[in-house]
């Protein structure tokens, strides 16, 4: 795997805060919305992962409602 740049590592931590923060807020039934810049970075990282996995086209179709979530093999992006 090799070394990871600090900037890349921090982006993965931001994604963890966003994803797990949303998980926790749902579990305790509290309304929590991550700041827009954090959401944008999280989405950008997940999109980059989809590009590298070769599933970006399917993700675009899914996010725009052109593909049914039930029949999708795109999600979850992180497997």
Summarize it.
Helices cover 61% and strands 0% of the residues.
Largest beta sheet, briefly? none
**Count the strands?**
0
N to C succession of SSEs: HHH
Rg result: 14 Å
The overall pLDDT, averaged over residues, is 87
Approximately what portion of the residues adopt beta-strand conformation? under 5%
Number of helices: 3
Shape: flat
Give the helix/strand class.
mainly alpha
What low-confidence regions span 5 or more consecutive residues with pLDDT below 50? Answer: none
Distance between the termini: 17 Å
Helical amount: 55-70%
How does this model look, in words?
With 79 residues, this protein is mainly alpha-helical. 61% of the residues lie in helices and 0% in strands. It is built from 3 helices and no strands. α1 crosses α2. The chain is flat.
Task: Name a few traits of the molecule.
single chain; 79 residues; mainly alpha
Q: Secondary-structure blueprint of this entry?
A:
Blueprint (H helix, E strand, L loop, with lengths): L5 H22 L8 H18 L2 H8 L16
């Amino acid at each position: 795997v090799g070394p990871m740049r600090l900037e890349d590592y921090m982006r993965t931590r931001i994604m963890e805060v966003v994803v797990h923060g949303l998980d926790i807020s749902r579990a305790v039934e509290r309304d929590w919305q991550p700041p827009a810049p954090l959401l944008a970075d999280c989405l950008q990282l997940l999109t980059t992962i989809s590009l590298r996995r070769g599933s970006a086209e399917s993700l675009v179709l899914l996010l725009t409602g052109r593909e049914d979530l039930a029949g999708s093999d795109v999600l979850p992006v992180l497997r």
